[in-house]
Every structure is written in structure tokens, then in C-alpha cells.
Amino acid sequence: MKALQCVELGPPDKLQINEVPDPEIQPEHVLIENKAASVNFPDVLMIQGLYQFQPELPFSPGGESAGTVSAVGEGVEDIAVGDRVFAMTGLGAFAEKIVAHQNSVMKIPDSMSFETAAALPMTYGTSLYALKQRAELKEGETLLVLGAAGGVGLATVELGKAMGAKVIAAASTEEKVNLCKQHGANEGFVYPTGKLDRDQQKELSGKIKELTGGVGANVVYDPVGNSYSEPCIRATAWDGRYLVIGFAAGEIPKIPINLALLKGMKIVGVFWGAWVGMNPEENKKNFEELFKLHSESKINPEVSDSFSLDDGAKAIAHLKDRKAKGKVIITM
Fold first, then answer.
1. CB pairs under 8 A, 24+ apart, for 255-259?
2. pTM, to two decimals
3. Is 59 within 8 Å of 32 (Cβ atoms)?
4. Residues 247 and 143 in one domain
5. Are the C-beta atoms of residues 28 and 104 closer than 8 Å to each other?
6. In-domain check, residue 320
7. How many structural domains does the chain have?
8. CATH code for the domain in which residue 316 is found
């Protein structure tokens, strides 16, 4: 079978398409013929050796895919040959076939395309866990989403709206802000790109306070980090929740911790992957909720760009260079 492989750490152009042996079925695992896989920011970090969990070389990146089950191992329950599924493996999805443990596989509704199914797990799974279990977002609260036109950003905009929040989308261009409004954002604004100076940080805080009537955002969803984080915390409401999602802007910020005291707020880490391992049944309930929301047209993963497996390196570069609006998909 063909697979996109990282044979040496570095930028996407170092990745190779290689012929590799088909994966072998194992007990409690299923073999999936992949139809689509989605690109996520951990893939960008992993191929450069910058991710917190680093696989041995060579490896195929790709944390989630969707396809058809072609074989099941001993001890597999509730999954059969021919089932349409998605798999959340964390690794190896950018290949024509993958073996996945049954606990990381879930059947998808017949009405859901493979491309949509591949785009759903990590972004919507992360965002629902963040808003529901970590932030305990309430109807009528204000939710600020940074990087709102990206994969997790758009998912959060849609879920926040479905949960009854007032959603403010912050993105780097007017085009991206308009996309967020199409997905349900009540308000939106453009922030500058690059490292913000103190005046730009004050301007960012001021804009958030302006759009919230001086109160501040009840919940801040931040996958960006760097110099954007502190001004958003300064513009958080009393008893607010600032969600630490990731650091797409590159640098992990150093936050004056007294801000949490002064605002009576919570700085909350969101590590969805670890939570899933400890709470598989709760995660299953979350996905049942996501499937219901999709059937009601309240969420709809935005697949902005699609690449073939042969062009998989270009797909990862597209996300790395922050050109994506919504999800980037690799099709097999």
C-alpha cells in the first residue's frame, strides 16, 4: 500500500510517498480501507520533532481518518466488515490502510460522507469537551474564539452557537471573519498577525471589552497562544474561563498569574486525547451528541481544501502556512 512517510524530521517537503507492507490485523483491532483523512496541527509539529509525543522514524503522520472496515480481529465487538467508520489513532492515518484498536473506532451515520467524518473527530471532539466538560459553557454567556476560521475554531463557533452562547470570532482577515459569521458567529473582528506589541495587545483587549459592553468574555477559547493570550485574559469577565487549547502562533506565553486572582477566573487546560483515554464512555456520549447536532444541521465541518495522498505533503504545508479556512483533507 502507499503511505506518506516522515523519514527525517523537518518541513513538509521532506515527506515521502512510499510503498509499505499492509498492516496486519491484531486482536481487538480492525483493518480499515481509508477513504479520507484530515490534517491537524499536531501533524505539523510531529514531522518537525516539535510535538510532545514523538514517534520513531520512519512514521506516517495523521491522527484521524474515515473509511470502510475490511477485517476484524479476535475479540472485536459491535464492529463488522463493511461498516463505515472513523478512527482516531493519533498516528498513521495518511496511508491507504490502517489498523486501529476498536476503542478508537466509531461507526458513522449513513448520511455522513467520509470527508465530513474525517474532519469531525479531533476538532469537534476537542471543542465539545472544551466547552462542555472544561468550561461548562452556559446559555447566554459570551464565548470568544481566537483563530476562529481554523478547524477547531469553526467547530467551536458552531458548537458555541448550538449551546446558546453569544459567539465572538477573532481571525486574521475579514474573509475569515465573514466565514465565521456564516457558521453562526454573532460578532467578529480582525486582529493583526505576528507578535503583538504592547499597544496592539491593549487594542485587542479593548476590542473584546467593547464587544462585550465592558464586561469581558465569559469563556475564551485560545488555540493560538503567543502574545495573543495575555490581552484576552485581561479582557475575561469575572469568573471567566480561559481555555488553553494550543499554541499555533509558535510561542508558549508566560502569563502573570495574578490576573487569575484579580478576576476570580480559571485558566483551564484542554487535553482531549488524555481525557478520552480515561473517559471513553463519556467521549462516546459526546460523539452521539455531535452526530445528533450534525443530523439537525447545527454543525457542519467546513472542508476548505482537499488533496490527494500523493500531494499529502502539500496538504500539511497548507495548514502549516496558515492558509486553511476550516479543515484540510487528504483523500485516498
1. 255/229, 255/230, 256/230, 259/230, 259/233, 259/234
2. 0.86
3. no
4. yes
5. no
6. yes
7. 2
8. 3.90.180.10
What are the tens digits of pLDDT across the range 57-69? 999 999 999 999 9
* Closest alpha carbon to 63 in 276, 270, 266, 311: 276
Cell 514531522 found at: 47
| Residue owning grid cell 500539511 | 316
Which residues is 75 bridged to in the sheet?
none
Its domain, for residue 309, covers 2-120+301-331
110: Cβ–Cβ under 8 A, 6 or more apart, which residues?
84
- In this structure, the answer to whether residues 104 and 239 fall within a common structural domain is no
Unique residue bearing C-alpha cell 505576528: 194
Asked whether residue 326 carries a pLDDT value surpassing 80, the answer given is no
Of 264, 270, 182, nearest to 222 by C-alpha is 270
Q: What are phi and psi of 179, to 5 degrees?
A: -60, -45
Write b or e for each residue in 186-221: b if 16 or more Cβ atoms lie within 10 A of its Cβ, otherwise e: bbbbebeeeebeeebbeebbebbbebbeeebbbbbb
In sequence order, the β-bridge partners of residue 84 are 68
